[in-house]
Design goal:
By secondary structure, the protein is α+β, with helices and mostly antiparallel strands. It is built from 27 helices and 34 strands. 38% of the residues lie in helices and 19% in strands. It is globular. Strands 10, 11, 12, 13, 14, 15 and 18 form a seven-stranded mixed sheet that branches. The protein has a four-stranded parallel sheet with strand order 2-1-26-27, covered by helices on one side. A four-stranded antiparallel sheet has the order 6-5-9-19. β31 and β32 form a beta hairpin. The chain binds one RNA strand of 89 nucleotides through α7, β11, β15, α10 and β30.
RNA sequence: GCCGGGGUGGCGGAAUUGGUAGACGCAAGGGACUUAAAAUCCCUCGGAGGAUUUCCUCUGUGCGGGUUCGAGUCCCGCCCCCGGCACCA
């Protein structure tokens, strides 16, 4: 009776052994090539979910594969441990956020261990511990010194549910990214990071990221939103005020027939002063300021405005043009004021029609391109007309000329505008890194001295969910002495956005115990950049831009040489079930623990990698996992049935010509499979096809086994195939393969064995199937020896009965031969 | 509206450089073993039609054109789906 596949015992046994022998622990070794695999570290919510399992399984396969290929592989794990849920738990259940977080981590850790991931646990990073967040504070101070962290009063996004400020990036459809509550606008003084200083580099850096998915690059570009254009000033007639505008279409300046200001523009009130209906206008402005903050797009009918009563001078035409205030102009973008060119901008056109403002055409389509017939609106580049000295130029020609004119006359300049805003990091929460700043009545904003770091979170805080920062209520925290004048002073009570923590954690993994710096630059120099970063695309903008930004800052601080932390990022697809993302409310959550209990970690890992390529959505299928379980069972049973082969030694070699067909076939298949799996894992990251080719290989081994067992060379090759099979499966199903490795008489670990190599001479079959087509349609095929001369193949193809049928009357017009593959006969 | 990605059996998905479309797996159907069930093993499996013993023909990768000896793959024009951004001047 064969031994049953007892995955429970097997998996426990190997996990214990791996842990005891610390086989995943790595140290810097300049003589060995390094490989750094990184997963987006999880938030300790309490339990891991299938998304984690997928993310971590992908990288575990790559890590194990790279190790077997001789790389020194850094595969760390840690915890994104600060954040709202811990604080909510504290408010609701009275558990301290720290306890809640640490308990969750310890549970999740045990779950990860059950999955057999090859983590170097000695490098575990936990952002909610002072040993970590001390360095957040350190980095913050360095940024403060360089003017990269600064205070600014501004209108901020406020989530009434979370009782905190949100970054622009954390507002999705005017709602809080976490709790979906409608976001409000508040005027507050906040800490910002000057990410806009790096806008240009964040954009140009994309050129180095050719191994990133295109959609992520596109999203980031979109988010950074660079526009090239011109800034020009319009002098208000009979006054010394001038209005600054931004345009990307300076070539349309001769068609600028009015100016429009945003209702929030600071000059609005000055411009309407003393005009007719001033009180009405004032009210209108106020109403529309409010309306703009609802964030809704204003439709054509809703486009509204008022005439200020003032005019300004178009610097090119010297005409006086009216100045309007309208609700379709945003204060947040550009200068909050625009030159309106109704003939060549859809919104200006709509507005001009509504208020009967002049529309002057200054651009016509170039060449024979027809103008859009609809309504006389043409928004593309073309040829200039009615444009004084510029008439006749193309838009492309006119733009630089006009900018030159502006600069010469000091009326404006060529400029670049970004959509990207500075990153507001202040959060009125407890469970985050305290911002290391002290406010002194005498000295103003003072940084905490480095020697006083970390500024630790106080423990005497009650969690009631009231408005305001919880830290404000901790006297022991707030009250302090000014480091400069030693007078009474007050600490900053806001904490940092947790995205601060996650912007550099991958540096900390390189030297998690470093005491003098955020990380040891030499160790970081060895490990970084990250060779493969895997995580959900939902972080395409937030985390991945912030992390790139931080890397550049750390570089400018002299701590690293690299410009880009993640040259290769793979955005892993969502895990869904029954057509939607797993969620408690949908009731379609599959619990990893339950699956591990039922099928074992090896099966779970194999399945989650098998049914779809990593970047695509993965639809969980309860029956699909059965298929993978059956496969591992078949492998297990097959090894049990053939273990006898590994006990005895086979007699001396037999000569090549004794190899029977099956032996030759299986040998070819073996080399082909090694090649395919190697490429799929190492080059294409298509783990699903790697698994299917392993399955194919095994199916063929199984089919041929009884024949192979009947003779000595057959037994030899069968043994070899089984050994190779174990190595190929091992990154996916490490426990069962390690067990079978031991059962087949190996004393060292499979994990430490070398990845199998293939020989090209064996990858190619000696006989090939030549496909015969007539007019491109498959009609017949035949076997031929590889590299048979072209003429012979062609005549064989033509002589086939089935081909004759098509060729006979007409005779072939042309015969095309693709070597070792195909003959196409054209009749 | 703009940007990016995609559309292949009942399902998840293969097809890597333009060269046998549907690998691998799931589901389904049939059979073997069994008192029975489970498990396991074998066979069939895009559609239509015809021979029916192994077979033959047509058709088929969102739609319509094109390039080519040959197109899921390349080009042009559409349709639809997903994701992102959106009064961005």
């Amino acid at each position: 009776m064969n031994k049953k596949y007892d995955f429970q015992t097997i998996e426990k046994k190997w996990q214990d052994k791996w842990q005891k022998e610390e086989i995943f622990k790595v140290t810097e070794d300049p003589n060995q090539p390094k490989y750094y695999t990184l997963e987006m570290y999880p938030y300790p919510s309490g339990r891991i979910h299938m998304g984690h399992v997928r993310n971590f399984s992908i990288l575990d396969v790559i890590s194990r594969y790279k190790t077997m290929n001789g790389y020194n592989v850094l595969h760390p794990i840690g915890w994104d441990a600060f954040g709202m849920p811990a604080e909510n738990a504290a408010i609701k259940e009275g558990i301290h956020p720290k306890k809640w977080t640490l308990d969750n981590i310890s549970h999740m850790k045990s779950q990860l261990k059950r999955l057999g991931f090859s983590y170097d646990w000695s490098r575990e990073v936990n952002t909610c511990l002072p040993e970590y967040y001390k360095w957040n504070q350190w980095i913050f101070l360095k940024m403060f010194e360089r003017g990269l962290a600064f205070r600014k009063k501004s209108t901020v996004n406020w989530c009434p549910e979370c009782q905190t400020v949100l970054a622009n990036e954390q507002v999705i459809n005017e709602k809080c990214w976490r709790c979906d509550t409608e976001v409000e606008q508040k005027h507050m003084e906040q800490w910002f990071l000057k990410i806009t200083d790096y806008a240009e580099e964040l954009l140009s850096g994309h050129k180095k990221l050719h191994k990133w998915p295109q959609n992520v690059i596109a999203m980031q570009k979109n988010w950074i939103g660079k526009s090239r254009g011109a800034q020009l000033n319009f002098k208000v007639s009979d006054s010394d005020i001038s209005i600054e505008t931004f345009t990307t279409r300076i070539d349309t300046i001769y068609g600028a027939t009015f100016l429009v200001l945003s209702p929030e523009h600071p000059l609005c009130h000055k411009l309407i002063e003393g005009s007719e209906d001033e009180e009405f206008k004032r009210q209108w402005i106020q109403d529309n300021v409010r309306q703009q903050h609802t964030g809704e797009v204003i439709s054509e009918e809703e486009k509204e405005g008022i005439f200020t009563g003032k005019t300004a001078v178009n610097p090119f035409t010297h005409e006086n043009i009216p100045i309007w205030i309208a609700n379709y102009v945003l204060m947040e973008y550009g200068t909050g004021a625009i030159m309106a060119v109704p003939a060549h901008d859809e919104r200006d056109f709509q507005f001009a029609q509504k208020y009967s403002l002049p529309i002057r055409e200054v651009i016509v389509p170039e060449g024979n391109k027809e103008k859009e017939e609809s309504d006389g609106l043409f928004t593309e580049y073309g040829k200039l007309i009615n444009s004084g000295p510029y008439t006749g130029m193309t838009s492309e020609e006119a733009i630089p000329e006009m900018i030159k004119f502006l600069q010469d006359k000091k009326l404006g300049k060529g400029t670049v505008l970004f959509r990207l805003r500075d990153w507001g990091i202040s959060r009125q929460r407890y469970w985050g890194t305290p911002i290391p700043i002290i406010y002194c009545k005498k000295c103003g904003i003072v940084k905490v001295p480095y020697k006083d770091l970390p500024i630790a979170l106080p423990s005497d805080v009650e969690f009631k969910g009231e408005e305001g920062s919880p830290l404000e209520k901790s006297k022991s925290f707030v009250q302090t002495k000014c480091p400069l004048c030693h007078g009474e002073a007050r600490r900053e009570t806001d904490t940092m956005d947790t995205f601060f923590d996650s912007s550099w954690y991958y540096f900390r993994y390189c030297s998690p115990d470093e005491k003098n710096f955020p990380f040891d630059p030499d160790k970081a120099d060895y490990w970084l950049p990250v060779d493969l970063y895997v995580g959900g695309v939902e972080h395409a903008i937030l985390h991945l831009i912030y992390a790139r930004f931080f890397c550049k800052i750390l570089r400018d601080l002299g701590l690293t040489d690299i410009d880009e932390p993640f040259p290769h990022y793979l955005g892993q697809g969502m895990v869904t079930k029954d057509g939607s993302a797993m969620s408690k409310s949908k009731g379609n959550v599959v619990d990893p623990d339950e699956m591990i209990g039922k099928y074992g970690a090896d099966t779970v890992r194999l399945f989650i990698l098998f049914a779809a390529p990593p970047e695509k959505e993965f639809a969980w299928d309860d029956q699909g996992i059965e298929g993978c379980f059956r496969f591992l069972n078949r492998v297990w049973i097959f090894f049990q049935e053939n273990l006898d082969l590994f006990g005895k030694t086979e007699e001396a070699d037999h000569s090549e010509d004794e190899l029977s067909g099956e032996i030759k076939d299986i040998q070819i298949k073996m080399h082909q499979t090694i090649k395919k799996v190697t490429q799929d894992i190492g080059e294409r990251y298509h783990l699903n096809t790697a698994i299917s080719s392993i399955m194919e290989f095994f199916n063929q081994i199984k089919k041929a086994s009884s024949v192979l067992r009947s003779n000595s060379p057959g037994r030899k090759i069968l043994k070899q195939c089984m050994t190779v099979l174990l190595k190929l499966i091992s990154p996916f199903a490490p426990h069962v393969s390690e067990e079978l490795w031991e059962l087949t008489g190996h004393t060292s670990l499979l994990f430490h064995s070398l990845w199998p190599e293939y020989e090209d001479s064996f990858v190619k079959e000696e006989t090939v199937t030549v496909v015969v087509q007539v007019n491109g349609k498959l009609r017949d095929k035949f076997e031929a020896e590889r590299n048979t001369p072209q003429e012979e193949i062609k005549s064989r193809a033509l002589s086939l009965d089935r081909i004759q049928k098509y060729v006979k009357d007409k005779g072939p017009k042309k015969v095309i031969y693709i070597k070792n593959k195909l003959v196409n006969i054209v009749v």
